[in-house]
Amino acid sequence: MSDIRKSMLKKYTSFIKKIESNDSVVICYDQDGDGIPAAALMIKALNRLHISKIDSVPFRRHARLDVAEEILKYNPKYVFVLDVSAEEYPEFMSKLTNTKVMIIDHHKTGTKSEALILKPEDLKFEKSYQYPTAKLVYDLMSELVNLEDIAWMVTVGLISDASADTWHEFMQKTFDEFKFKHEKEWIDSTPGIIAQIINSATSVNPKRTDEALNMLLDKSIIEILKSSLADLNHDINAEIKNVISNIKPEIFHDGKLNIVEFKPKYAIGGVVSNKLSFKEREKTFIVMSMYSDHVEVSARNQNGSIDCSRLLKSAVKGFTDANAGGHKPAAGAAFQLDRLEDFKKNLENNFLLAKL
Fold first, then answer.
1. Residue ranges of domains in the chain
2. Domain 3-230 belongs to what architecture?
3. In this structure, is the dihedral angle defined by the CA atoms of residues 333, 304, 203 and 195, taken in order, positive or negative?
């Protein structure tokens, strides 16, 4: 890391240096292949700083006030929110006013907050979506403690968030140090398989997020690859293959906009949209997981022609009990089932307005 970037991290390291060994700390983290490794890295780093009174709470967007109450049960002095744009949820943040909060996240929002926020743009890194939270946590905490022996966790987050190529030198160095075999695709490497295993844990109902986090904290790489979550991953991969082979997308704008609907056995919409979009990079895919009362959406565009976040936000504008957000190439949304046709019409009408 450059000396300039190191100097930019000083106010964040100063925040962490104030934590005493007997202070209560809560790590609140996003339930995905970046947020979970980020939480594991933060917990291990704090442990190495002799801070052991740490609890973890997975973030749930649809129940964020419940999440805040769960955090407060631990009576924390410090709260770290990882891979979540918590500054965009004032009702959530207002619950934490009596705690010291740091948000570490790579979703660009521009929203101000009284909390200390670390984003890639604070380090003069323009493409925030290519600087996942696991890497942010690693770079920050490496200023205070040596984490090289667990650097492989960062590669899991980078692969999960499709950012490995941006950090090619770091990936190569870490692969060499841990003797990981180089595969044609990052996702087929050992860290890539672990990323799949973690994401599988968040794809079942109820989610097995705590199990995935504890697995990273307590098990070796070999043990992870032989875990029960690895078996679950095999089942989910079979379901993903089945869904992709049977989809019939609705096509708009001369094939540039593709809308897919399916009823999920597992929460695999994000994986399906990733696979479809990487196969046909010139197209935008909107993958909709259909539930009994609501729809969950995963949008992807890999060639940089469409701002997926802007498109989804415009598609749910005016809806009640709906949300949308994310990055330009990858975004998500959720809305009530009775607004399905309105949502699809909004996608078609606003598609060209989201062009980059």
1. 3-230, 247-354
2. Alpha-Beta Complex (3.90)
3. negative
